[in-house]
# Entry
Amino acid sequence: MRSRRLLAVVLLALTLLAPGLAAAQTVSVGVYLPQASFASNTERSAYADALARAMSQAAGGQLTFEARAFAKRADLLSFLAAGKVDVLVTDGLFQVGRTGVILAHAVDGRGEEGPLAALYAAPDVANLMSLRGKVLSVPEVGADNARYFINAALAGEVSGQGFFAEVRPAKDAEAALGAVKAQVTPAAFAPLDHPAAAGLRLVGQGGRIPLAVVVAPQGAALSAPIKDAVTQALLGGAGKGGGIAGWRAGTGKAFAAAARAMQSAPLVERARPIVVPASAADVKPPRARLEATGQLPRPSVGQAAIVPTLPE
# Structure
């Protein structure tokens, strides 16, 4: 009898605690910012942890956010495929062409949505033409990084397949620029004014990289309380670091422009040629005027003396 009463008390306690236990939901936050200017992986991880704490505080203890910083694109793709990421803070180029809802976008200290895209080269590289047939490095972020940077930094004026021998992926912007300093490649694409670009020659710049966006990968499946906690934390001042100075609601203009740049062929490949090459068989002399019209034009004789023509 006593054991039955004890069991009843325990069940009653569990019943009363159930709402609190259900509310203490754990939300996974993935952070992938390969082009942000973090000084080290330790600083990147600290940024992710601080962001998760701010989101938990914004939720008022009803949600627990746990962060995981990703250094490689392949690792993040694996976690997304397994459904292990509820909220994603990522480079805008990674999100191009992917499903999900963008809740907010980052801005830098000047209020811009990210830095310009740039091409940096070794100090002894004279100009862009010096890089024809060379191997370049590029941060491995989105689905077609070479196309994006060629369209953005070089205004699509060269063909990725025909101009460079290879555009080789690196895990982040620092690694891409480091390959130039280590003389592994003569040039690399990266964000303008990235700290790792110090001492390198700027060859081209343009476009604007959407430095960071926060995404609900599952879209509408993410509950309203989670979305509210995320946006409240970011718009309230959290998530600063690595060149990010603040956040604004919505997708932003830079993301749409980046999507067009990544998904469009370079201008030089789309432009209609002025002169179309032809084979010798296609080149024919123009038709004689008599053959074309059936008549010769009437001679026009002015006041000047008529000069006899050469004998036929």
User: Anything to note?
Assistant: Residues 58 and 126 are 52 Å apart (CA to CA).
